Amino acid sequence: MSGWLVVAGLGPGAQTLVTPEVTAVLAQATDVVGYIPYVARVASRTGLTLHPSDNRVEMDRAQHALQMAAQGKRVVVVSSGDPGVFAMASAIFEALETFPEYLALDIRILPGITAMLAAAARAGAPLGHDFCAINLSDNLKPFATVEKRVSLAAQGDFAMAFYNPRSASRPHQFARVLEILRDHCEPQRLITFARAVSTPEEALNTVTLAEAVPDMADMRTVVIVGNSQTRRIGPHIYTPRSAL
Amino acid sequence: MSGWLVVAGLGPGAQTLVTPEVTAVLAQATDVVGYIPYVARVASRTGLTLHPSDNRVEMDRAQHALQMAAQGKRVVVVSSGDPGVFAMASAIFEALETFPEYLALDIRILPGITAMLAAAARAGAPLGHDFCAINLSDNLKPFATVEKRVSLAAQGDFAMAFYNPRSASRPHQFARVLEILRDHCEPQRLITFARAVSTPEEALNTVTLAEAVPDMADMRTVVIVGNSQTRRIGPHIYTPRSAL
Q1: Residue B199 and residue B204: Cα distance in Å, rounded?
Q2: Is domain A4-113 in CATH 3.40.1010.10, yes or no?
Q3: Could you tell me which residues are beta bridge partners of residue A76?
Q4: Would you call B149 an interface residue with chain A, using a CB distance cutoff of 8 Å?
Q5: I want to staple B79 with a disulfide (CB 3.0 to 4.6 A). Which of A198, B30, B87, B167 is the partner?
Q6: What is the pLDDT of residues B23-73, one digit of tens each?
Q7: Are the CB atoms for A85 and A114 separated by under 8 Å?
Q8: What is the pLDDT, as a whole number, of residue A209?
């Protein structure tokens, strides 16, 4: 059995943010599996079969990838950003628990530039000190857990990055998160809404917590909340390396 | 004035983890500034001046980089990992506050693969759910702030990544952090010590919190603490996407 399975991060969008390691593994693949818009970022070529699939079928996709690798295929599961940050790497391991017959497979994870770090770089350095990454979606956890974590992160004066802040099916929850922030943080706290960073649709918008409204975020937005020391210097937003 | 200043992340060590964006900007640079081992990773060539400097002189280095850019040079400040995560990007903006005469300069930050994400990928997906990144060094903040943040992160059942866990000048603090974890977490909690990931000196070691001792970490180690759901599946360590 010479097949393998790699879960690779394509970064936030731009080809110039794809690591050479990922480019090299894609050149060796026989099969690429993933969510439709991510698979669309892989160039087709002879000998490569693309398997795009819809969102919210992560477990089917993971099982399919394991099956093909077990058949001797060289399979790359593509994720946007970094596959280990709210993406496909954990889904592959969950599938592996369900199907232990694939345990001996050669499985590797290749990191990528995750959305919050691409967004932070574009804004300046808002995550330049201790920070938390929180997925605001309650598809896989109770919303009370989201609320508790945002509250604790604010109490610890962490900077924060929010993934999946808002969707059509969850329009009210980000409003609740802003309320929690207002309970703990001063109105001048800086919040950056970074949409589709490194793509043609890129848009950055930094406002104060007092000015922030839920409509500023959608599913393609990463939201970065500064800590109490985060400030503007010219066009840049940054968090100093020191803390009180 | 056609000079510019870019703060670029070289990733954790391997050349295959340097983004094409960073490689391209290094090819345009006239001057490269940074900590000695990071500058050593940039190939010398005609027309490029390398300016290696010692650790703990971040502000001098930042001022020097700003000065050269103002003189029309094309300056790249190199960081290991991602420049926005406990690295040079914030130092540059701190210098810019001190020397506002450089405010009009063209300053850009280019992201890189940060150590915790390279380490997580090598281990599996231990940061696959909400997590915190905490710098354990008290060079720039009171150690009480470190203690408070670790405690709150544990209370929130965040996974955690610790940067700069331990050095010769701070041998006892990581022991205190392990004590705080033991106050909040079960003895079976998984901890991965990831040293020098993607370099020839790479070494990974995953133990339980009960087994963890301070000697397992040094300044080249990133420590990843799982959340309460983090588990082993075969040789992999992962955190499920769901939470209680």
Answers
A1: 12
A2: yes
A3: A6, A32
A4: yes
A5: B87
A6: 999 999 999 999 999 999 999 999 999 999 998 788 999 999 999 999 999
A7: yes
A8: 98
Angle at A222 between CA A43 and CA A175, to 5 degrees: 140
CATH 3.40.1010.10 positions along chain B are 4-113
Check A125 against B140: CB less than 8 A apart. Answer: no
Find the helix packing angle between A88-98 and A58-70, rounded to 10°.
70
**Euclidean distance between CA atoms B123 and B141, whole angstroms:** 30
Highest averaged pLDDT of the listed ranges A47-56, B47-56, B156-165: B156-165
User: How are the residues of chain A apportioned to helix, strand and coil, as percentages rounded to the nearest 5?
Assistant: 35, 25, 40
pTM here is 0.97
Portions of chain A given CATH number 3.30.950.10: 116-238
Query: With contacts defined as CB-CB under 8 Å, which chain B residues touch A134?
Result: 130
Question: A216 at the B interface (CB within 8 A)?
Answer: no
Contact A60, A98 (CB under 8 A): no
Residue A34 contacts B where some CB pair is shorter than 8 Å: no
Is CATH 1.10.287.130 correct for B116-238? no
**Cα-Cα-Cα-Cα dihedral sign, residues B210, B213, B216, B220:** positive
Taking contacts as CB-CB distances below 8 angstroms, the residues of chain B near A128 are 84-87, 89-90, 93
Give the nearest chain A residue to B101 (CA atoms).
Answer: A234
Please answer yes or no on whether A132 and B132 come within 8 Å at the CB atom.
yes
Asked if B144 reaches chain A (Cβ–Cβ under 8 Å), the answer is no
CB B175 within 8 A of CB B214: yes
For residue A173, what are its two tokens? Answer: 């929850």
Q: Whose CA is closest to B68, among B110, B20, B19, B34?
A: B34
Of the candidates B63, B56, B212, the residue with the CA atom closest to the CA atom of residue B137 = B56
Question: What ipTM goes with this model?
Answer: 0.97
